[in-house]
Specification:
It holds the Pfam family Phage_phiJL001_Gp84_N. This is DUF2163 domain-containing protein. InterPro entries: Phage_phiJL001_Gp84, Phage_phiJL001_Gp84_C. It is built from four helices and 15 strands. Among the domains are: about 15-140; about 170-245, Thrombin, subunit H (Beta Barrel). It has helices at about 5-15, 85-90, 255-260, 275-280; strands spanning about 20-25, 30-35, 40-45, 45-50, 55, 70-75, 95-105, 110-125, 125-135, 170-180, 180-185, 200-205, 210-220, 225-230, 240-245. The chain is mainly beta. The radius of gyration is 26 Å and the shape is extended.
């Protein structure tokens, strides 16, 4: 139950109030921003809540049990607020949003209404709208292991245990050009074609600094690399921008053994029978289908 001060409760019971809404947005990279629908800036809790940002929010829906409630926030894309480049680069994905009810005439009278997580973001020409999911959305996330051929771990995570800081798995490069969705870089060390496919590229400078993108394809010719992304960056890319690259894994046992020498930590079931085995008919010329292993 929310605890309200006596003066705040009295103002809520009155016919006319001096309340407004404030939103505290905390990105996963540590950046904290404040917004309010009041007509002047407000400050509390070491955060300044800026007015005139064009941000507004819908009603907050709450559901019984573990149902996922939520709301929607919409606003204008402005340089001193939420800019288009940051939205496109995913800097607000998974950000935490606190919604406060605040008495602008006495900031001590305030109440935390809800804490949500930014979900799907839709962008228009000059505006955006973001889905705000309640804390119950965490219970919708998959848990446990999946019975699948490919590895269920992510490269470098505690289950995989590959050291992504190893010099053999990463390098840096300078941007030469970006045209037709293909990024050309001069790398500090040569690698085989496809080594960085499914890996990650992080910009170290330029308009996309700190942005991390997943690599779709990688071609190598000496020190010159050609990289294509699944999703292009939101900011402009200029020659001379620096980036770091980390090798990728296709989650197959072959890559785990030959590329990373890490088959002991493989988290998949490569000998799992496929659909061809499930629908196969008994055949005197084939191996016996007695429930035993097909690989012994």
């Amino acid at each position: 139950m929310r605890q309200l001060t006596v003066s705040m409760q009295a103002k809520l019971d009155a016919r006319a109030t001096t309340f407004c809404h404030c939103w505290r947005l905390a990105r996963r990279d540590g950046v904290i921003m404040g917004f309010t629908d009041h007509d002047r800036d407000l400050a509390f809790g070491d955060v300044t809540y800026r007015a005139n940002t064009g941000l507004s929010a819908s009603q907050i829906e709450s559901m019984l049990g573990f149902g996922v409630g939520g709301a929607e926030a919409s606003g204008a894309l402005v340089d001193d607020g939420l800019c288009e480049t940051d939205l496109l680069n995913g800097l607000y994905d998974g950000a935490s949003v606190e919604t406060w009810l605040v008495d602008w005439s006495r900031l001590e009278d305030r109440a935390l209404l809800d804490v949500c997580t930014v979900g799907e973001i839709r962008r228009g020409e000059h505006v955006f709208s973001a889905e705000l999911r309640s804390a119950a959305h965490v219970f919708d996330q998959p848990r446990g292991r999946a019975f699948q051929r490919g590895c269920a771990a992510d490269l470098g995570d505690p289950r995989c245990r590959v050291d992504l800081d190893a010099a053999s798995l990463r390098t840096t490069g300078a941007v030469v050009a970006f045209a037709g969705g293909v990024l050309t870089l001069d790398l500090a060390a040569p690698f085989e074609t496809g080594f960085f496919a499914a890996g990650a590229l992080s910009f170290l400078s330029g308009a996309n600094e700190r942005v991390r993108l997943t690599i779709k394809t990688h071609r190598q010719d000496g020190l010159r690399a050609s990289i294509a992304f699944w999703t292009p960056p939101g900011g402009s890319i200029s020659p001379g921008d620096m980036a770091s690259l980390v090798g990728g894994c296709d989650k197959s046992p072959g890559a785990c053994q030959n590329k990373f020498d890490n088959i002991v930590n493989f988290r998949g079931f490569p000998h799992m029978p496929g659909n061809d085995r499930v629908i196969a008919y008994p055949n005197s010329l084939a191996k016996a289908m007695d429930g035993g292993s097909f690989f012994r």
